[in-house]
Amino acid sequence: MVAGQRLIQTTSDILLGWTHAVGLDGRPRDFYVRQLRDWKGIARPETMDPALLRLFARLCGASLARAHARSGDSVAIAAYLGRGDRFDRALAGFAQGYADRTERDHEALAAAVRSGRVRAQNA
């Protein structure tokens, strides 16, 4: 994970790394290590109006594309994607299908809560 993160980040966290140590349960394991607090803000999409949400989505997409382009051969990736909108349409179709699935899953959870099969509490 650390090696992959270093590949896709423009500038890695200087404290990013890993170590092998005994866990609290007494079993040895690998641990991912990074800075304790980065003092950065966090986006809250649920508070954004549609225009700001579109801008946020555009920035996230651009960042993700840049990160993936850094991790591979950007010319080969661009050639694979082509010039048309076929990839865009496929991605939008996947996103719509994923959103629909999420809505169905949420409705199933809400129904289970209403029926008493699952208990829910506000965080």
Output the keywords.
123 residues; mainly alpha; 2 domains; two-stranded antiparallel ribbon; 2 strands; 54% helix; extended
User: Which of globular, elongated, flat, extended, rod-shaped describes the shape?
Assistant: extended
Figure out the total of helices: 4
What is the number of independent domains?
A: 2
**SS strand fraction:** 5-15%
Q: Could you estimate the helical fraction of the residues in percent?
A: 40-55%
How many E-type strands? 2
Strand order of the largest sheet: 1-2
C-alpha Rg (nearest Å): 20 Å
| Main β sheet profile | 2 strands, antiparallel
Structural class: mainly alpha
Oligomer: single chain
Give the SSE order as H and E letters.
HEEHHH
Gap from first CA to last CA: 30 Å
What would the average pLDDT be, to the nearest integer?
Answer: 83
Low-confidence stretches: none
Organism: Streptomyces prasinosporus
InterPro entries: DUF2252
Protein name: DUF2252 domain-containing protein
Can you offer a commentary on this structure?
It is a single chain. This protein is mostly helical. It folds into two domains: 2-83, no CATH class; 84-123. Helices cover 54% and strands 10% of the residues. The protein is built from four helices and two strands. The protein has a two-stranded antiparallel ribbon with strand order 1-2. β1 (17-22) and β2 form a beta hairpin. This is DUF2252 domain-containing protein.
